[in-house]
């Protein structure tokens, strides 16, 4: 039992930097973000979990969430997002991209957390890998012209406060 306690502590400290199926390593990943403030977001449309094409709105700000359904930090951020005034903002489009998730896992997550925003499956990290190397949730805020306003790693309990803009 005493041998398992340090391992459990190390696993907890790594947050959601690993994938669900990967084993925990003893070196924290070097978080890299591949898109910076002022850059234009390179994707203009997605296919949602229902198989429908969803375009980035031309007249709205956007919150792009890169997350994993199994990640406690991602779950906390979604709960905070759903309780925030952002969820009812008619001038904000929210798109959540499930890293290593399939459409059914996103539908299940959406039902469980009562979300009302677009969910996009990214089973092979094809989308995620354009923006980061490790860590979820990742939040990318875009202006009306799809330029990056800021990027955040949402592992802190109060990340939603940084998003309210």
UniProtKB/TrEMBL annotation:
Residues 1-19 form the signal peptide. Pfam families: Redoxin. It comes from the Bacteria. GO terms for cellular component: cell envelope. Keywords: Cytochrome c-type biogenesis, Disulfide bond, Redox-active center, Signal. One of its GO terms (biological process) is cytochrome complex assembly. One of its GO terms (molecular function) is oxidoreductase activity. InterPro entries: Redoxin (IPR013740), Thioredoxin-like_sf (IPR036249), Thioredoxin_ResA/DsbE_sf (IPR050553). The keyword Signal applies. The keyword Signal applies. It is found in: Cell envelope. Gene3D superfamilies: Glutaredoxin (3.40.30.10). Residues 37-159 form the Redoxin domain. This is Redoxin domain protein. It comes from Pseudoalteromonas piratica.
């Amino acid at each position: 039992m005493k041998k398992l306690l340090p391992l459990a502590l190390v696993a907890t400290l790594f947050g959601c930097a690993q994938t669900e199926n990967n084993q925990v390593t003893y070196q924290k990943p070097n978080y890299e973000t591949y898109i910076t403030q002022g850059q234009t977001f390179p994707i203009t449309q997605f296919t949602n979990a229902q198989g429908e094409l969803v375009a980035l709105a031309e007249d709205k700000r956007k919150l792009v969430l890169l997350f994993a359904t199994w990640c406690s930090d991602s779950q906390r951020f979604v709960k905070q997002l759903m309780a925030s005034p952002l969820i009812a903002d008619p001038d904000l489009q929210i798109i959540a991209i499930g890293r290593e998730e399939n459409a059914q896992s996103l539908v299940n997550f959406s039902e469980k957390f009562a979300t009302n925003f677009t969910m996009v499956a990214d089973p092979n990290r094809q989308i995620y890998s354009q923006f980061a190397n490790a860590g979820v949730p990742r939040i990318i805020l875009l202006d009306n012209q799809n330029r990056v306003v800021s990027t955040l790693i949402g592992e802190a309990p109060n990340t939603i406060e940084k998003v309210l803009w």
